[in-house]
Amino acid sequence: MNFKSLARHYSRFLAGRNASKVLFWLALAMWPSAQFAQVFPPEVKKASEPFVCQCRCNHQLSACDMFGCGSAIPLREEIQGHLKQGKTQQQIIDAFVAKYGQNILSAPPKSAWVTPFAVLSCGLILVFFVIKAWTQRKPKLAAASPAAAMPDAYRDKLERELKDLG
Amino acid sequence: MLALVSDFGQFCLLFAFCLSCYAIVSSFLGGKLGNRRLVETAERAVMAVCGLVTLTVFSLWYQLLNDNFNLQFVAANSNRAMPWFYKFGALWGGQEGSLVFWCWILSLFSVTAVVLNLKKNRNLMPYVVGVISMVTTFFLLVNNFVANPFDMIGVIRPGNPVATPFTPMDGNGLSALLQYWAMVIHPPILYTGYVGFTIPFAFAVAALITRDLDEEWIRTTRRWMMVPWLFQGIGILLGAKWAYVVLGWGGYWGWDPVENASLMPWLAATAFLHSVIMQERKGMMKVWNMVLILSTFLLCIFGTFLTRSGIVSSVHSFAQSPIGPYFSSFLFLMISLSAYLLLTRLDALKSENRLDSVVSRESSFLFNNLILLASMFAILWGTIFPIITEYLQNEKRTVSAPFYNKVNIPIGLFLLFLTGVGPLLAWRKTSMQSLKRNFTMPTIAALMTGAVFFAFGMRHFYSMVCLILCVFVMATILAEFHRGANARRRQGESYVEALWILTFRNTRRYGGYIVHIAMVFLFVGFAGAGFNRDVQKEMGPGESVEIGSYSLTLEQVKNKDNANYASAVAVMKVYQNGKLIDTLLPERRFYKAREEPTTEVGLRSSLKEDLYVVLSGFTPSTSKAVMHTFLNPLVSWIWIGGLVFMLGTVVCLIPDRHEKAIQKVPAPAEVEELAKA
Fold this sequence. Notes:
The complex is a heterodimer of chains A (166) and B (677).
Chain A: H1 3-15, H2 17-30, H3 42-47, H4 72-84, H5 89-100, H6 110-135, H7 139-144, H8 146-149, H9 152-164
Chain B: H1 2-33, H2 36-65, H3 72-77, H4 84-89, H5 95-116, H6 125-145, H7 181-196, H8 198-210, H9 215-247, H10 257-282, H11 286-309, H12 324-344, H13 361-393, H14 401-421, H15 432-455, H16 461-489, H17 495-505, H18 507-528, E1 533-539, E2 544-547, E3 550-561, E4 565-576, E5 579-584, E6 587-591, E7 596-600, E8 602-605, E9 609-618, E10 625-633, H19 636-653, H20 668-676
Antiparallel strand pairs in B: 1-10, 2-3, 3-4, 4-5, 4-6, 6-7, 8-9, 9-10
Helix pairs in contact in B: 1-2, 1-6, 2-5, 2-6, 5-6, 5-7, 6-8, 7-9, 8-9, 8-11, 9-10, 9-19, 10-11, 10-13, 11-12, 13-14, 14-16, 15-16, 16-17, 16-18, 17-18, 18-19
């Protein structure tokens, strides 16, 4: 094989898919070996939703996509193991809580859920009373207000004209 | 030279602290004694502090850009291989520098407040200067004695693990997550928001101290509130963009405690910007407005305490140190001061007016405030719940996205509904005719949209309700613009000209509508999250993955290497209907100094959807690349919403001819007096 044919052969090799394969393996070889990822089936992703990743990312276990996450990958593997044993979602939750404590759960207990809505309800009641108190304030004087005494039709016309003025 | 500049910076920082202490004493004393000259010296001291902190910042930049690794701060947050703009940004990448930077922005705000009020609000200014100086002094105290950026390696301080002096050959480098363009501008913008809320707080405290609670101070405060509100909003959105592009989990908002900490004061400020209209127009909600101004600032300090104390786990843990007790003490002091002043001035904050009807603009403001505060409380509750459970039950509980989403989505949708309804309700009382005229067409448009979505198979409840409400709100706002422009066209103006003049003659009203349009865009973006899809696949060269109408083929993985990081880049060809439309280059970087990996996502963005590709890593068993591909609909609308939000707020800030003419709606008692006259 002379130099010309060698060059032709080499350039054909580079142009083909072999080249990209070589580059791919080269890239892998040069990459730090700890940076591994793993693909889990969708049912593992679904089953990891009730848990939170422990890598301080605050994401659900199903969402943590940190490179080579030291928490997400083993936990997902554990869930995969539970699923292979035919455990239900609740059984996996119980097993995780027993092993890692309540902190593994992504959702807080019921008391946490109730509080914001309780505060909102109290706020609504407060607003109701405030509106009631403000509408009842000094009713006699209010009657003297020309705006309050204005019939709806006139008020409507006034509003429209004021708006039209921009 | 480096040591000289470093010593000079240290001196400036210490001198600034002394002058700031002087400003507190002289301003309060001058205000109390009515001594104008003493107050003037305090104002000059504030300007001098600004100059000194500016010099401190520049000397610190000089250390960073010249790799002075004798300084702990520089060694911990920079390295030789970093590009200059990241060295520049390293100032706010670590605890000490970011506190100096905070102080600098505060001093710039202080000088602006002093200069703009040389001839007005003179009765308030001694106390405004005093309060601002108190905050500045606190930060300077922390910077001088707890978290000093000029500390040499080997100086023993709380949290300083190294006690032996030495000069490292190279620094640790900036956190890899922060080496992204948005992080060069996101912290300064967000800090400007956080810090800016000090000025309205100072005006509020000054008004309470002097009992000078007339309309002038609230008008001044509204403007001062709007500027940081704008910056905080942009900062939050830039942070979301950073999370979207750098964290590589496919989302833009993770309800991280630090994200929450920035959102809470913004929500409180939003409530204030609405309810202040009630005070300006009707002299009502004075106590409430005061509470909102004070809370906004206190939430900023609380947020900073959360960010820096490390009491909650967060992706922002790069800026933690033992300064928590100092911040909690300062927070306690400020809460006590605010509560005392507020409770002893309640008599001066009585409402001047009454409510005529439940169906009125006034009521809508009350509901708007309630909803905004409920949302803020839910976020606050979720953020501090782990701390509370740990304290009370000795067991840490986690609160993450499911809680925040479930609580805030219905609240947010109700808020969106009010965004459409509130502005169209009349002051005092809204007639039935007015309700029909304003809401018939938007309601029909919204319902028709819902029917179309349903017919096309959309079944995600919250997303569908959100999009229907978006159409409703948009229709009400556009109808307002149209009505106004049509009225002006009768004077011979063209439609576009009429819209322009309309907007700039009443900037507060129409700027506000533009901000509401921005909110609609943001909610359109949020609604898209209901339809997110993703697929994760191991891929070798030539293998493909399908998602939506796209087919992605991994062509090759290339290596890149420079002094700062090594990276693997996946070359992904994107096909649609068999046609090559794009090449995406998702990347995994490995920063050498800190030995930290980061993600650079491959992103193809359109108004309809984002194709978002992450190189998750490599499988150990098959040695294939793991590609995580997301299809996120409508995300671009969030960033568009951010731009429109900026535009709307800037329009609001432009003084209009109506502003001075805003007349308070007379109280009934005043009407009676007028009638008698």
